[in-house]
Amino acid sequence: MAVGIFDSGLGGLTVLEAAQKRLPDVDFIYLADSAHAPYGVRTADDIYELTCAAVLRLFDAGCDLVILACNTASAAALRRMQEGSIPEGKRVLGVFVPLIEALTERDWGDNSPPREVDVKHVALFATPATVSSRAFQRELAFRAIGVDVEAQACGGVVDAIEDGDFVLAEAMVQRHVDALHCKMPFPQAAILGCTHYPLMHDTFQKALGPKVKIFSQARLVAESLADYLQRHPDKMGTDTKGKFLTTGDPVEVSQRATQFLKRPLTFQSA
């Protein structure tokens, strides 16, 4: 067994890297659905079907637990999957919960009524599909009241990052932050609602200003995973060595992933 981490492309590698640092004794199998990336411009039904296929592939590889290290998949597919398409004994977790726990400073297991929190104005930067799903706002409403969330769909940023064109990615981030400021001039906090975006953390921070607190997912998801595995050690697994899988061209994806994380990575065909 091993813990599976899934993303439509390479963004989930930011979560994988943080998880490996936090849990060095855990084996991980990473699957990138590179052949169908990006998910952020696809329909909800399409995202659901692709996510289900990828998760089943990770279950077949020996994983009992899969992390959807993709906000778009978490937004468009997770709840639907949890309602009936996950085999008994398997578990799929998304990436919204750790963010909301951090933003509201309350554990997900705290089922008391929604209450006011210190942060009132939140900017959400995400893919078009994540923004249109309103999944983040829906989940936040169960935990907090009085929080104004202004979402900005960041079209093109994922493509630029996946292509390794960080000059273009920086320009696009600045453009999207400018658009957000037209709707919310003074956000108190910002959510980087895509696992690609931590690579652009400094660019977002510079564009937003030093007073805006940025919540980025990689470290939060890694800490949440460590807590979950401590409570559910049967989902950790020790019998399968970690590996990298892709539905795309393994050579091309390996080259891009090596550039992405700045260390050698070798992908195999999924």
Q: Top keywords for this entry?
A:
Rossmann fold; alpha/beta; single chain; 11 helices; 2 domains; 270 residues; 6-stranded parallel β-sheet; 4-stranded parallel β-sheet; globular
What percent of residues adopt helix (DSSP H or I)? 40-55%
- Quote the beta fraction: 15-25%
- Runs in which pLDDT lies below 50 for 5 or more consecutive residues are none
CATH class of the largest domain: Alpha Beta
* CATH architectural arrangement of the largest domain: 3-Layer(aba) Sandwich
Count of β-strands? 12
| Integer tally of domains | 2
How are the strands ordered across the major sheet?
4-3-1-2-11-12
Mean pLDDT equals 92
CATH-defined fold name of the largest domain:
Rossmann fold
Distance between the termini: 17 Å
- Count the helices. How many? 11
- Categorize the overall geometry: globular
- What profile does the largest beta sheet have? 6 strands, parallel
Radius of gyration: 18 Å
The sequence of SSEs as H and E is: EHEHEHEHEEHHEEHHEHEHEHE
Broad structural category:
alpha/beta
Short description:
By secondary structure, the chain is α/β, with parallel strands linked by helices.
Polypeptide structure, described:
With 270 residues, the protein is of the alpha/beta class. It has 11 helices and 12 strands. The chain has helices at 13-22, 44-60, 71-82, 96-104, 128-133, 135-141, 157-162, 166-183, 201-208, 217-231, 250-261; strands spanning 2-7, 28-32, 63-68, 91-93, 115-116, 121-126, 144-145, 148-153, 189-193, 213-215, 243-246, 267-269. The protein has a 6-stranded parallel beta sheet with strand order 4-3-1-2-11-12, sandwiched between helices. It is globular and about 50 Å long. It starts with a strand and ends with a strand.
